[in-house]
Amino acid sequence: MESIIIAQMAVSGAFMGLVYALIAYGFQLTYATSKSINFGQGELVMFSAFFSLTLINVGLPYWLVVPGGLLFGAVLGLFVERAGVRLALEQKSEGWILLTIIIGLFGFSAAENIWGRDDRPFPTPISSDSFQVFGVSITPLEISVAIGVLAVMGLIELFKRKTLLGKAFEAVSADRDAAELMGVSATRTIMLSYGLSGMVAAMAGILVSPITTVGPTMASALILKAFAVAVVAGLDSGFGVVLIGLFLGALESLASFYIGSGWREAPGLILLILALAVRPNGVFGKASIRKV
Amino acid sequence: MWKRLLFIRGTELVALALLASIPLAVDNSYVLGLLTLLAIYGILLIGLDVTVGYLGQVNLAQAAFLGLGAYAAGLSVSLLGFGIFGALAVSLLVGLVLGGLLAFPALRLEGPQFALATLSFSALSVTVLNEWESLTGGAQGLHVTRPDLFGLHLKAQGFYWLCLILLALVWMAMRNLLSSQWGRAFEALRDSPIATDAMGVGTFRHKVAGFALGSGLGGLAGGLYAFNFEYLQPQTYVYDLMVILLLGVVLGGRKSLWGAFVGASLIALLPNLLSNWLMFEVISAIGLLVALAAGVRGLMKKTTKPFQAIAPVIAMGLLVGGGFLVENTENWRKAIFALMLFAVVVGLPEGLMGFASRFLAQLFRIDPPALPAPAELNTVLAAKAANGEALLELRDLKRYFGGVKAVDGVSMTVRAGQVHGLIGPNGSGKSTAVNVISGLYAPTAGEVLLHGRALPQGSLFKVARVGVSRTFQNLQLFGELTALDNVMVALKGVYRSPLPLVLLGFARGEEKRAQAESLALLELVDLKDQARTRAKDLTYGAQRFLEIARALARKPDLLILDEPAAGLAHPDVNNLVEIIKRIRQCGITIVLIEHHMDVVSELCDAVTVLDGGRVIAEGTPDEVKRDPKVIEAYLGVVSEAEAPGAIPSPA
Amino acid sequence: MKKTLIATLLLGLFAAPSFAADAIKIAITGPFSGGSAPMGTSMRDGAKLAISEINAAGGISVGGKKMKIEVVERDDEGKNERGALIGQELASMGDLSGVIGTVNTGVVLAGDKHLQEKGITKIITPAAGSASMTQWSKAGVKDLSIFRFSANDGIQSAMVIEEAIDRKFTKVAILHDATNYGVSGRDDLLEQIKKQGNKLQVVATEKYNIGDKDMTAQLLRAKAGGAQAILLWGIGPEMAALANGMAKMGMKEPLIGGWTLSMSNFIDNAGKSGDGALMPQTFIEEPITPKAKSFIDGYHKAYGVSRMASPMSAAQGYDAVYIFAAAVKQAQSDDTHKIKEALEDLKEPVKGVIATWVHPFTKWDPANEQTHEAFRREQVVMGMVKDGRVVFANEAEKQRLIKSATEVKKGK
After folding, report:
1. Is B205 within the bounds of a domain?
2. ipTM of the complex
3. Which of A272, B392, C172, C377 could form a disulfide with A228 if both were Cys (CB 3.0 to 4.6 A apart)?
4. How far away is chain A from the Cα of B365, in angstroms, using its nearest Cα?
5. Number of domains in chain B
6. Tens digits of per-residue pLDDT, C150-199?
């Protein structure tokens, strides 16, 4: 019994961990190009999820809802970049931290008033009836999360490696100034990264909503852990986030079982602080040299 | 002078007297409650301003320190039977200690990483308060009784006065601290941590101290909070409150006590202002007009970008228009707050008080306080023995980056009182060598000796403390500080008062002396007249000279100038040569990295030439100029036809 | 004179404009936003429905003059700090006749002391944990102006345990949220198990946080212990997550819990998984009596809904206003102290939608909190979630209510 419980906890935690990894991946995209991240990303996840729910309620079929939601997420990402990030980057200030928090706050309040303060169910064609694998119950819904997360990340990586636009992305990430000299517009590439990041966040929202329901506060817990995953793995670690996501998901699930569910958040937070103290560039990140 | 003092101190006193007398005029517990909250938030935000304004870091932990301080005060009353001052001291201490501890891991972090570290700390604190049920009562909350003050039971009014007195004390102490070397060091840290270290001002000590101090005030505010509400629950101190506090500081204006106070009033009163629709419309209409006026003015003067002018107008317009569409403005409280903040952060980055204080200073023609006369230069830079002994020695110094051998076995000797040139083509290892000497990089192998003793390795700070000072190829000035403050930050041997005396305001004497000495150094580089200009507003040439004056403030034995002429226009290059000559007269030894051969020829007593990380030539300027290896290094091929001494001097 | 002038000026800055002089001013407070909003807003809307009915009939006649009721609304957001400020604000209004509202225990604890200090009459409804009244009995307050109009946690937990015993369960798990409400609910349940003869063995006691979505850990513990029923104490969204988690793990044990299981955010989010959940209710949204029918229809029409977010909050808000109005009428005054005295000794029965209230409160006795509590066991019934609505769990109780309503009618 005990070993099955451990396995069950680890497995269901790991599935959630993949969602953290996906959001963390969204942080990486923008960090790579601009050394900035959207502190209101949680609200972006939530807002896109609500928008997708509205599409469902309007009667759109599910295969149209997903691209619709993703597109909306991308637009929101672009908006965040324009309104909150670009000016601060031009001024080389860290004003974007505050501005993205502020935009998030606005999004939160708007969602509360547009869609109400209550959590709502998110219908999905995928079944949530569980089946047993070695005594561990797994639902098709959880499998769909795993597939969705890996598919989105895989596609974006493919895009970055195989297309011209994607290569521009890599160039700006590697050396912004050199890329600009070669005629790659850093501003456009940063926009692209925010658009993609918004899309990734929307995907996370759509994937997680059938499990957690949709509500204004749905992402506040998610986002803390996505931060933790991103930082522990390293903000430029690529697929490192998947490993750390799985690990953290399983760890917090086990912690909530063995220590008490109130401590669920603790392992992620402690890991985050430790990682920042010991390895600010993350487990998989590259160390940087101070230049003057 | 007197007008300024009268005006500033007078306003503070009048405001304090007004606040203190309201309860005498009005018997209204609600007004009293709001005022008490205002005083508590005032202390909290002054503390937060240390990290957000002075250290320039987005700090999301202040709400947690409020909570930790509140619980500490409550528990020290109920478990330990402390009196009100004992309990408040405990909450202050808890903030100081935990803030100091958090500063350690957060120490190396900047920007987003720092914000994340503080965010996790907050979430963790709430978890602990919630879960440690046996101590805190967990989610059930903790009832706190307000202890008596010297046997006197404090009613709401008395407690308000206590809060107000504490606010005034905190205000005075922080004013003294922030206008001293401490405040300057905090700001220096924000603008350039590397230069702060290189100027011998410990980033470590100041970051920990600044963060601990801000958190301590958060804890103190928490103690008052506990005795005000007399009932605590962990959920009170979550993300929501954090964001609102942060926004209070920004809205009110960073780096300003008044700004913190205005921010505190806004967050205490805003919920009430919003519940009245008419009041809301009036406020947002005024906001729209200000945004319009500021935007148009900025665009006409070309001081702002179009986005900076238009975005606030859109935000405030949304506010005015939205008021007519929305049934209940109170439901949209956070969105309204967000819009106002957005407008302020984008259009008015200095915050309301930053804007207002500039305006008021103009309106009342208040001059800044007068400066003392400059000190005699020879008292500032005491003459050193220019006896030609070996001052700095490099022995087989190596520094590799992975496979790249940036410096590969360099040995050289710099003699006291000389100007020693270090030249070489791009990528020859000059800058790396200097960075190793000054402690930015630790050497891979080899030794660096000063006065025959080994220099500390890999620490800018430690190297700076033993008498080596430097400038930077890419300017590392403290942009927000004035030219005078830039020099004063680095000034050695003046600041001796311990922290308690500084807080009590007994450091003014040394402040005057520091000003006088720093002015002498500014005079040396011909910047005395621009002492009050912010470094980032100086011309490029003036910025270069300011870095030299700042480096001199360390009163160094060895001054390293890293390409001081780079990017200078011709007249400025001549001035530079004059300045360096003056410095040499003071007996200070100089290592000069330079591309301009004419500058090198005119100034240097000896020159070392590097290429590919190795020394290829040494000698007087004339000797090295004729060395074929040097010519080859610069031109690639040695041509018989070419005249010796044809080393190009890039503009 | 000067003082009042300054006071008015300051108040103009701080507070909403004042009201007409010949009206009875009632404040309605509660969480109109945040997690407890369904309860707060339903209560507010129920109360305002009653007020509009009273005003439409001309108002309450006081001293030969018809006085209308005017409402001051304050959203406490479920936050203690707001609760304290609102308490201070209301206490300083001077012309306030009374306060109705609040849901969160913390808000009550932070705010009510300011009202009590000025002796302002408050009826706590639709909820708030036991501590909201025990704080006064513990302090030994002699004269109390705070009344509670909600089925207290003691009654509710007793019913939950009764139900579990009636259904012949022997092993139960208690799951609760980490708020004040959840934790004191857990303590009440444990105490009731002892009181009712220790017939239930508690195999797991598990806590979760507000906002938690994944309850696997807690449920696994319950399952491992062999629990036959899950006793719940929390609010809607998380309990829905629990119900969904159980469905996912194939657990079919019944849920029995506090009245919050009737909240729309539980019923909607749990969907099928929530069917069969049992909870004590003061009001079921079924038109079993003419009075109930007119209330339900009136509510649906006034607010354009087909279902109340929290029917019992709405009904309690509605009845609380009628009880308050009866006290005003009896006191023949809008003075809050006189209203309080009248409330402690209501001569006329008040016909409400939940019950006909006969002498609901009596003079406060610090040794007996029941003196300021209106609800008794007989006003509370067991409800059950069925197809997205709350229905009577036991047909017998439904019949009892219909019968008692007709009896009162005959008696008149």
Report:
1. yes
2. 0.89
3. A272
4. 31
5. 2
6. 888 888 999 999 999 988 899 999 999 887 788 888 988 999 999 888 88
